[in-house]
Amino acid sequence: MRKSLFVFFLFFWTMALLADFKPPQGTPERRKGGEAFPPLPLPATPLRRTEKKRQPAPPVLVARLIHGNLRTVTYEGKEYKFWDWDTNPGAVKRLLKIAKEQLGVEYTETSISFERFDSDPAKNPILVVTGHMPLSFKDDEIEKLRKFTLAGGYVIFETCCGVQEFYDSAKEVVKKMFPDRKIVRLGSDHPLFRSHFPITSVTYNFDGKRHTVKEPPYVEGVDIGCRTAVFIFKYGILNGWDRFHDPGAKDFEYEDADQLGINLLAYALSYYALGRFIAQERVFFEEAKSEEGAFIFAQLVYEGNWDPNPTATLNLLASLKTASPALTHFKRVQVDLKKTDISRYPFLFLTGHDEFSFSKEEVEKLRNHIVSGGFLIADSCCARDGFTKSFISLIKTMFPDSELKHLPAEHPVYSSKFKIERISYTNESEKVKKDLPPLPLYGVEVNGVTRILFCPFSLGNGWEKERHPFTLGISPEDSIKLGVNIVTYCLTH
User: Fold this and answer.
1) Are residues 335 and 380 in the same domain?
2) Residues 148 and 233 in one domain
3) Is the N or the C terminus of the chain less surrounded, counting Cβ atoms within 10 Å?
4) What is the mean pLDDT of residues 444-458?
5) Residue 46 lies in a domain
């Protein structure tokens, strides 16, 4: 009984104490609005309404290739170690910052080894290979570079500080990449020198002394189709982007390096779609499997970029078939004057960007073909001066008493299929060239017939039916009409 009374008393005494007890006040909880929403499905990351949204990272445009060994140099009595490929670690990043201001585009850069390098240029369209020491790549690594450029990518070999050994080794790598293509110095009319800044002269820094020349920078390249896919810089350009001059270097002055770098990015971005277009495999069902009974479009092969528009001629012939249903079969063939019996091909086509030449025997063979009734059609791709000068020289060699003359409006080539009284040019042509003629064709008469026809304003770019940035040429619609007229004229004469 006493025990029960004690427990009863203890219970009421405890309850009385708890009635006067107040717990310490904690910080009040404030629920943010976004927390009331159910979680988003993965992989999206939910953001609270009060949380500042983070912008997505810019896509990668430039990758610097990791290669070579660790270098050790002594400067002002101190020893420094660095990787040869990473001599200018901030150069590309700084150039991309300038590109954001100048071009209105935002990209980033990365570094990549051959082990991680993917031949798909969609992941990093531009690959920079730089250094001082000679390059030593394995065959499978060179094949990766080749596939990358053929797929639409760009490879830039930059000779840091203008070191001759690196430059020579870079050219050897490119020759292994494309043994059938020619490394050429880019002419003053190459789009690289006007894709953003007009560049007509350059100042170098050779051994600490400024050296200005009244011509565009010395840059070499290799074309794939109508696009320069490999660039070789004989003198250092990254030093300029990184704002550093090595006392014994051969490189560009800062401002010139920046302008050329921006032009390089503008060119690569503008021609990227064309590179991907050229890389696609296409099947032309109208093309005949054999030459028998077919119209043969025979294209002359020479050392150099003899085929700047790989899909152009078949596109033209497809249009010709539509315009002339009687032409049911056609075939495009490659003709080497050294090896081929050209008497089988009355229609010969010659095109390109750069200077070219034929041997004395090849020139004589071509001349006899024309005198015997054959036709030679020539087209200066992108209206390049190099090809035009070489073709004029070829005509003077074959027919020293003749000259290319501008064909008047009444010439039958302008009415053989379509009535053409005036043609339109690309916008770039009208910006760069002055006094463009209303009709573009030139010719040489042989035995009373115009058997040589020449267009200095790029028909082939229009035939290809794909945008060619910075091209100097005729509009695609008029290019097709002129091409159909030229073939029809040759077939009827």
Assistant:
1) yes
2) yes
3) N
4) 96
5) no
